[in-house]
Every structure is written in structure tokens, then in C-alpha cells.
Amino acid sequence: MVSEQASPRSRHFASAGIWVLAALIVGYALVFGGYIATIVAFALIYGVFVSGLNIFMGLTAQVSFGQSAFAAIGGYTSAVLTTTYEWAPLPGMLAGIVFALLFALVIGFPTLRLKGHYLAMATLAIGLITYEIAVEWESVTQGYMGISGIPPLGIGPFEAISDRQILATLSVIVVIVAFAVTRIRKSRLGRAFAAVAGSEEAAGALGINVARYKLTSFLLAAGLASIAGSLFVHVVGYVSPEVFGMHMVVLAFTMVYIGGLGTVAGPVIGALIVSLLPELFRGMRDSQDLAYGITLILILIYAPKGLAGLAQSFDARRGK
Amino acid sequence: MNAILEVKNATRRFGGLVAVDDVSFTVPSKGVTAVIGPNGAGKTTLFNIIAGTFPPSEGAILLGGADVTALKPEAKAARGLVRTFQLVKLFQDLTAIENVKVGFHLKTRGGLFAALVQPAWARNAEKDVEDGAAALLDLVGLSKVAFSPAAVLPYGQQRLLEIARALAARPQILLLDEPAAGLNAEESERLAKTIRRIAADGTAVLLIEHDMKLVMDIADEVVVLDYGRKIAQGSPDAVKKDPAVIAAYLG
Q: Which UniProt keywords apply (chain B) (predicted)?
């Protein structure tokens, strides 16, 4: 967590600027639609996923390489329930959350006793195992073939079918998630997370049950990952194991660091920027990947706390 | 006077080494009690046994009459025993006031629901925490740096901040692990005043200390350890004249 030097009443122009930038990107996609709208829609889904990861990694300072597992559980639960069993999307998504939380609870009890590299390895294994299950459990997941014909997002008679409807729906969800993270950060719960992040020994000495708050943080991250997985399959209409592979984890890590670990806006702006950068360099053909890589490295050199972290330090300096 | 803490025949062995050897004493529910002793006397081991970092090999720790020997630090904190650390352990990235607000954890309620919905009781509790944290910073003289990150504070202020944070949990007994270590004379003075004030407000204080001057200034009762054994106990003046203590300190 990054804290301001000035009193909390000082203004936050630069941090607000991050949100304005995010709104402009989404607004642009809403107005012009087409390919860019698809990119931004996926970015917003990642915004939800990375916000969850940020609760665990940013607010609580734990590592998980296995969050894709919970996205897979949410995604597959939604896919199976809304196709084979013809459930509506919302109950399907809720069922996905329940499964993801149960899985996180069972996994979390033994795993969260581990620290640092060991926790990272264990969670990585969970992601890989879930991927294998998605491949092998053909009677439910249809293996590599995947599940198609998943209905679009919708509640009752309202369905999000067009690019703009999808974007609007996802934007609302991202705003709700960001609002929730803001409130968590400033609450007793958020302070307990920050205490675990700062010093487990000191947290324990103040009566904070470290294991319990790690698990709570893990569950929140898993729940948001599950929602992201469900959103993904409804927006694309199709799911296969590749969707929730290692690629998802690497991308999410890039997003959270580029955006700013431990900040509220970081995961959202990180998801948008990291998703859009490749499009920006599309015209450069052969050197496209190189330009993308260099840009990411430059951001991390000049904004080691991410874009939202950079904005916060601007505000802190002005506030002095 | 009632005893808040009782250490009964505490012994701790590390392999063949007996770090704490059959130590017994009680801490009254008011006033300042100090454990002193030369380097390697077993002070820190004794402190860790009391705080719950590890249990004693033999013996018992009673808190308010109840056996808490095997409880973990967080469980002991919940029963009113809160410690500070010899090497200050603050939440570095949080501001001073945020550090103290974390200290109110035990005295407040609320999880995810309270965070997201913010019902009236949770908002009121949050207001109380805010006011209480400001008052504690005032008590230790850190109001001016309330919004500075803990990491940038000078060492003396970090120690005072850690004490303020511990007080937020409203302990019945506050354990201070070498609170004067690394402080200059002026900071030490300020610390002594703060500890007296805490004791005067009705919190029992048990401190482990190397700095004789601080102990003699503020302690009501002194327990002296040497080679893991208790060699003396009494008022600062009595202990100062004790031949066994003089021998231990002058070698």
C-alpha cells in the first residue's frame, strides 16, 4: 500500500486523472465500437480478475500464481449450467462463485500456511492441476473441444448482445468492484490485511488472526476471479481450457504491476493499458512485440509502483 | 494488590542450554515492573515465553488467574496482554495514524459486510477509531507526524508509535521489550514519562530492559536475572544494593 505524505484532505488530481484516462478509453470504445470495443471488453473483465488478485497480492502482500483456477471454475460452471442445464446467467455465475469459494477454502487451509516462494509454488500447482482437469474431464468440460453456444450476459428479458451493451454492462461491474475495493481498503478488514502485509508478527501481537485474514483475502480474490471467468464465457460464448491457462496468470501479473500494486485504480488502468499496448504497436509489424516489451519495461523503470502509484506520489508531493 | 500476570517456575531449554531456569514472579495489576539482567541472562527468552512466541519447557504463565501457557500471541492479546518488539515492528508503508488504527482491531468488530455496506454502527465505530487513534498519538507526542509514513520517522518516534499502537488494543498488561534500546537521552526521557503516564492511567507495565537508569527511574518493582535464574527481586533501591546483583553486573 502506498500512503500519502499529506493529510487525507489534500486533493488527488493525478489519481483522479487515472480514472479519467480509464473512462476516456472506455468512452472511446463505446463511441467507435468494433474491434477496439472487443479489446476493451476483455480488458474490463481482466480488470475484475486483477482487482481480486490485487486484494491478495497488493493489500495482503501474498503471492498466488493459481488465480486462473478460480476463473476456470467460474467460467466452466457458468458454461455448463447455462448450456446443458439451461440456467440463466446470473444464477450460473452465483453457483460458480460458490464452487470457487469452496475450492478456495479447501485449498487455502493447507496452502496459506506456506510463505513466499513456497506459497507461489503451491498456488502455481493449483492453476496447473485445474487446467489439466479442464482438459481431462471430458464428460463435463468436453476437453480441448470446449463448450460453445453459451448465452450472452443478461438478467430476465435484458440481454447484453451488442458491443456497446456488453461494454456498458462490464463498465458498471468494474465500477462496483472498484468501489468495493475502496471501501475494503479503508475498513477494519482492510487494516487487518495491511497489518498482515506489513508484519505478521506485529499483526499477531495486536490480536489479529493472521491465518484467518489471509484466507479471507484469498477467498475475496477467488470470488472476483470466478466472476471474471463467468463474464468471459458469456461475452465470448465459448470456453476451452486454454482460456484459463498460464497466459492468463502472466497477463494478470503484468497488469497489476503496470497499474500499481495495492491501489484501487491500478488493476483497472493496468488491464486497459496492457490490453491496448499491442494494438497501438500493431502497425510496426515485426518489431511489435519488441516495442510492447520495451514499453512495459520503461513503465516499470520510471513508475516502479505502477501508473496509479506514480499518480499518488505526484499528489503526495503537491500536498506537502 | 491483585496480580495480573504470574510466571510460575518457568524453564526453557534449547538443547543442552537452559536459557531460563525455574523463574517465578508476579506482576501486580498496577504499576511498572521491570526485568533486568546482563547480556545473555535470559531476558528475551523469558519475554518470548510470556508473550507466547514459544511455550516454556516447564512451568506456567497465568494471566488474570487463567492458565495461558500454551496460547499463541494473538490469543494472549485478545486476553489483554499486548507486547512491543525490541526491533520495532511497525507497518512501514502505513502512516503513523493508520498504524495506531490497526491497533484497535481487538476493540472493534466488523468484516466484509461492515466494509461494503457501512451500516451506521460501523461508521460510528470508525469515527471512534479515528478519534481514539488521534488521542493516542497525542499521548505519545506524535500528533504532528500523524500523516507521515511510519518508515520515515526517526527511531525514537517509531518506538513511541509502537507503544501507542499497542495501547490501542487497551491491554491490561503492556509488555515492552527493551524500549530504550537505541534511544538518545532526550528520547529516553520522553519514553520514561510516557511509560509512567500509561501506568498512572491504570495499565500494568512489564518491561525487559538493559538500561539501568530508565529502570531505576520508572520501575516500582525490579526482577533481576542472571544465567537464566532469578537472583533478586524488590524495589529499585533495594535491588541496587543487593550484593548478588552488584556481582552479576560488575562481573
A: ATP-binding, Nucleotide-binding, Transport
3-class SS of residue B58: strand
Query: Between B93, B105, B111, which is nearest A198 by CB?
Result: B93
The residue of chain A with its CA nearest to that of B123 is A187
Report pLDDT for A1. Answer: 42
Rg value, chain B, Cα: 19
Measured in angstroms, the CA of A159 and the nearest CA of chain B are apart by: 28
First-to-last C-alpha distance (Å) of chain A? 19
pLDDT in tens, B80-133: 999 999 889 999 999 999 999 999 999 999 899 999 989 999 999 999 999 999
pLDDT beyond 80 at A2: no
How many CB pairs (< 8 A) connect A and B?
120
B93 vs A1: CB contact, 8 Å cut-off? Answer: yes
When CB atoms are compared, the residue of A4, A191, A197 closest to B101 is A191
CB B105 to CB A2 under 8 A? no
Ranges of CATH 3.40.50.300 domains, chain B: 1-80+171-251
Instruction: Identify the CATH number of the domain defined by range A13-319.
Output: 1.10.3470
Is A4:A308 a contact under the CB 8 Å cutoff?
no
Is any Cβ of chain B less than 8 angstroms from the Cβ of A97? no
* Residue contact A209–B74, C-beta within 8 A: yes
- HEC readout, A109-121: HHHCCCCHHHHHH
The CATH classification number of B1-80+171-251 equals 3.40.50.300
- As given in the structure block, the three cell numbers for residue A213 are 485474514
Q: Which residues of A fall within a CB distance of 8 Å from B125?
A: 188
Closest CA to A223 of B151, B41, B67, B112: B112
Q: Which long-range contacts (CB under 8 A, 24 or more apart) does B238-245 make?
A: B240/B216
Pairing label, strands B173-177, B17-28: unpaired
Q: Do A3 and B98 touch (CB under 8 A)?
A: yes
Alpha carbons A97 and A90: distance in angstroms, whole number: 11
Q: With contacts defined as CB-CB under 8 Å, which chain B residues touch A197?
A: 91, 93
The 10s digit of each residue's pLDDT in A173-226 is 999 999 999 999 999 999 999 999 999 999 999 999 999 999 999 999 999 999
